[in-house]
Amino acid sequence: MSIKLQLALLLASLLTTVFVTFCVVRFKMNVKYGIVWILWALIILFLSIFPFILIGFSDLLGVQTASNTVFLITIFLAYALSFYLFMKISKQNDEIKNLTYEVAKLSKEIKEKNRNE
Predict the structure, then answer these.
(1) How many CB atoms lie within 10 A of CB 66?
(2) Mind telling me which residue stretches traverse the membrane in this protein (predicted)?
(3) Which tens digits make up the pLDDT trace of 9-39?
(4) H, E, C per residue of the chain
């Protein structure tokens, strides 16, 4: 792995950690989602400090260069994160639908109670 790639990974991991921490504090980002990004940044930091792990993983996967392995891992993690977020959206849509039914039911009960008084 070239020194340029190591420095780029190191810089990217540090910037990601700072940015995510800023978003958690300033914009009240949910901490559990911030932790995912900080863990990813720490993994990138670890791989930039110990490049032989990334090179070994590249050889194991049959990928020519370590930078391509970084791209491959990033694409996989983006795909997994996207799937997770779609699962969360689906669950929240169901919850919103249930809450809408509950609000309509309670509203109807209140209107009926006001008519009876």
Answers:
(1) 23
(2) 6-25, 37-57, 69-87
(3) 788 888 888 888 888 888 888 888 888 888 8
(4) CCHHHHHHHHHHHHHHHHHHHHHHHHCCCCHHHHHHHHHHHHHHHHHHHCHHHHHHHHHHHCCCCHHHHHHHHHHHHHHHHHHHHHHHHHHHHHHHHHHHHHHHHHHHHHHHHHHHC
Q: Which residue has the tokens 């993690």?
A: 77
Core vs surface per residue 22-44: b (16+ CB within 10 A) or e: eebeeeeeeeebbeebbebbeeb
Tens digits of residue pLDDT in 51-67 = 888 889 899 999 998 88
